[in-house]
Amino acid sequence: MDDTLPRVALITGISGQDGYYLSKLLIEKGYVVHGLIPCNAPGIGEPPGLNLHYGDLADGSNFGTLLDTIKPDEVYNLAAQSHVRLSFDLPIYTADVTGVGVLRWLEAIRQHQQRIGRPVRFYQASSSEMFGKVSTPIQNEQTPFHPRSPYACAKVFGFWQTVNYREAYGLFACNGILFNHESPRRGEGFVTRKITQAAARIKLGLQDKLMLGNLDSQRDWGFAGDYVDAMWRMLQQPQPDDYVVATGETHTIREFLDAAFGHLGLDWHKHVEQDPRFLRPAEVDTLRGDASKAKRVLGWEPQVSCQQLAQMMVEADLAYQMTNDKCN
Ligand code: GDR
């Protein structure tokens, strides 16, 4: 590798939350950043410093050409059908995009390396959902998987394909097993953002009720901005490996409601109602990650607590709703 040239990264799922934070981080580090967007992507325009290309994990036909043209040093596969509840309605689509999509990239990279002879480092966005029905109160890299949704089954497939390409072909391929990570950029269908957006709107008198599903499940919620740094660190190591990325703390949905609504002086009990539409046929009751390997090997540390995260998201939603309200 010529050290005088800027490094080149390709990010799938660049229009999502993690794509936003990772591209920002890599641009700050001097990378040339390319991103893959599906043809129906909500327009993110062409933000300065980003090179966007159409591509879809359900159709790998242009992956080889993209690799040959862009010649990335690092590929981050963040794209997926990532909504767990939705995966029960669209199991085959989810298996194709979230599972087989990983294999489309791995195989395209293997063939590209053979053709061009230059190494590519691959990051796979694996998920704590793979632990599912957990066998231990705290999960680390040794914890067995027990997926509980079509989404989680697809992620397990992607995980093992990544390991297998590493072992079979010597590909520099890493799995980041990321626990839930949130931010003001979180999609509105995920529970934390749904809560912070509703809290802001209720505070401003724009809505009164919030319909939710299971309030008893527990999640280990961290800040997406912290987690993308762990992804980058994984690809800078001398050897490829798999890492759990988590805060080590777990909270119920009720506790997140307390933090978000409480920050605005609201009592969520007056506004939240249960809607069976948001329940899942199989639930992941509790998740709590042990990131000691990532801390030891990568020197990574989470910087934002769950309480701070809820406050950051509520503040952002409040500011957004206030601006939006003025425009209406
Ligand atoms: P999760 O995130 O399934 O953990 O996967 P999500 O925020 O969707 O659900 C977390 C928990 O909240 C409960 N819940 C609700 N969830 C949603 N979406 N909407 C509701 O109204 C609601 N009410 C209660 C859920 O039942 C669940 O227990 C996320 C995704 O980002 C995955 O892609 C990623 O892999 C994992 O995090 C790590």
Pairing-aware structural class of the strands and helices?
alpha/beta
* Largest sheet strand order: 3-2-1-4-5-6-11
Q: What are the distinct ligands in this entry?
A: guanosine-5'-diphosphate-rhamnose
CATH overall fold name of the largest domain: Rossmann fold
CATH class of the largest domain: Alpha Beta
Question: Count of DSSP E strands?
Answer: 13
Unreliable stretches covering 5 or more consecutive residues: none
Average pLDDT works out at 96
**If you compute it from the alpha carbons, what radius of gyration comes out, rounded to the nearest whole angstrom?**
20 Å
Biggest sheet overview: 7 strands, parallel
**What spatial form do the alpha-carbon principal axes imply?**
globular
**So, CATH architecture of the largest domain?**
3-Layer(aba) Sandwich
Description:
With 328 residues, the chain is an alpha/beta fold. It folds into 2 domains: 8-182 and 222-245, NAD(P)-binding Rossmann-like Domain (Rossmann fold, 3-Layer(aba) Sandwich); 191-219 and 250-287 and 304-327, UDP-galactose 4-epimerase, domain 1, CATH 3.90.25. 42% of the residues lie in helices and 16% in strands. It has helices at residues 17-28, 63-70, 84-89, 91-116, 150-169, 191-203, 224-235, 253-263, 292-298, 306-327; strands at 8-12, 32-37, 50-54, 74-77, 121-127, 172-178, 181-182, 210-212, 218-219, 222-223, 242-245, 251-252, 272-274. The strands form 4 sheets. The protein has a 7-stranded parallel beta sheet, with helices on both faces. The longest helix has 26 residues, at 91-116. The radius of gyration is 20 Å and the shape is globular. The termini are far apart. The mean pLDDT is 96. Bound molecules: guanosine-5'-diphosphate-rhamnose. Residues 82, 84-85, 127-129, 179-180, 189-191, 194, 212-214, 217, 219, 253, 278, 280, 283 line the site of guanosine-5'-diphosphate-rhamnose.
